[in-house]
Model the fold of this input.
Amino acid sequence: MKLELLSPAKNLEFGCEAVNHGADALYIGAPSFGARAAATNTLEDIEALVHYAHLYRAKVFATVNTLLFDNEIDDAVKMIRQLYNIGVDALIIQDLGLLECDLPPIELHASTQCHNASIERIKFMESVGFKRIILARETSLEQMHAIREATTADLEAFVHGALCVSYSGQCYLSQFLSDRSGNRGCCSQPCRSSYDLVTSDGRRILKDQHLLSLRDFNASQQLQNMIDAGITSFKIEGRLKDLGYVKNITSYYRQLLDNMMSDGQKSSSGHIEYHFSPDPERTFNRGYTDYFLRERQPMANFATPKSMGKPVGTVTSMGRRTFCVGGKEVEPLSNGDGLCYLDTDGRLQGFLINEVHGNTITPNRMPNLHVGTTLWRNQDRRFEQQLQVHSAERRIAIRIRFHATDSGFTLDVTDEDGLSASACSAASHISSDNPSANSQNIVKQLSKLGDSPFSATWINDETQGLFFLPAAQINALRRNAIENLINHRTNHFHPKDTSFTPNSTPYPSSVLDYRANILNSKAEAFYRRHGVQQIEYGLEKTRIYDGRALMTTRYCLRYELGCCLQGKGSAKSKADIKPTDTLFLLNNGQRLRLEFDCRHCLMQIYKG
Done:
């Protein structure tokens, strides 16, 4: 089974660098209708990325994963045809109304926003034509094993990046609070806001805390277990992250996967040489959790939704304008680094380093620290400088054969995937005065591959230097052969047509409410063809919020605070919450009611 590292491409530049740093595939926002409205791209840029990625046998998936209104369907289908024509390998979609349209024969991937959380749902998605299912982030290793046994579809799972606190596709909080729908690519991220936690009788449990803000996902220690569970594509979140993050995290997981892969599992071409040491703690992160892969655990960061970075030590002494850092594993610090800490109120504070002398730090302004304060570095100046330059290069191995023909000379090049190309030069066979030196010069000229994507692992001059050929002609042969090989690779590694035939496979339920996210008549027709009899349109269309769960999440605030109604988790409560208390979140005058479905271990948020 082939294993794929899937990286985010905010734009053409980010996508090319993700390939350079080890991505086997990329996902990039289409010109419109992508789940990140701030990360759209032109067809011209996507086509250029397809050309670059295919050179390395890497794939490009376009995200068209928002819910659509009726008046948007035709434009979406037209754009999908354009994406197919420029060679995009697959389409990531959420709106199943598209399956009722005349789509080109392009491979379809079911977005995680399709709420791919149950075996029944996933089997249905496979049966209606999806080649790949992108699993809900909440999926455990045990569930992955069971899903793998029940389906033959490719399974993709997240391994790193920001976590939506809600089941993807099942959050309407942004839509309710700000008329910006996450399912339409415009989430205002209310989960990263601060809230007061209060009871129905007005008792305030917590004040101004980021109660819905999760740490970031990091499954690096579970990668082999995910492989064993049948996952074949490992997805890094981050189409809105900076370039340093994409380079660093892609490189980190590339090296991990390479160490775990056996022969035949590689899904793209080339060997990568890195000019830095990847470290996921040195770029944006809110602290890490492996979420529900193994078992429920504390996973929130109440203090801040911002990046805290890597722990660097604790304050050991204080001066008037300086302080000292110590600890078991003190990180080397540099002028210009950014440090942060939690103040006595639990709020994140930060400052920059002006000077470092050993373990003595002179900040740009004296922070309110005390002995024992833990420090994190959320801006690593030296590491960022390494990532700002040429931090990796990816080369495809080739073998070069130079030989004489009746009419001149021929250069044959064969790459690591077995593809070959040639270039010929008509020239007289002029005897060389010094065959040994001449042969060395021929090999030297042929090895000058410069900015090409290739590196020569074998060069054979079969003429043994017996015939003289000017360096300009040798170089022209090399350039022409390399150009022909590049063209051969980009033409060879293109997506295969994937036929799609509508069917009437019964949907697991005959009744669908607003959580099915149906906003258009095509989606309604799709579900009715599959046996659904009763349909309620989505909240983006009805705007009926009373009695509807605005968020459904496996994250539980009671569990996080040690007040689980089932007695799970920490035995020590972190808050004065009674089992009979009804809990509310308050923010800017808006009240949200929390309900706890302990039977299914879920928390839901309702209009208060």
Observations:
- The chain is about 25% helix and 25% strand.
- The first strand starts at residue 4 and ends at 9.
- The two ends are 49 Å apart (CA to CA).
- The chain has four domains: 4-163+215-268+276-282, 170-212+504-608, 308-388, 392-492.
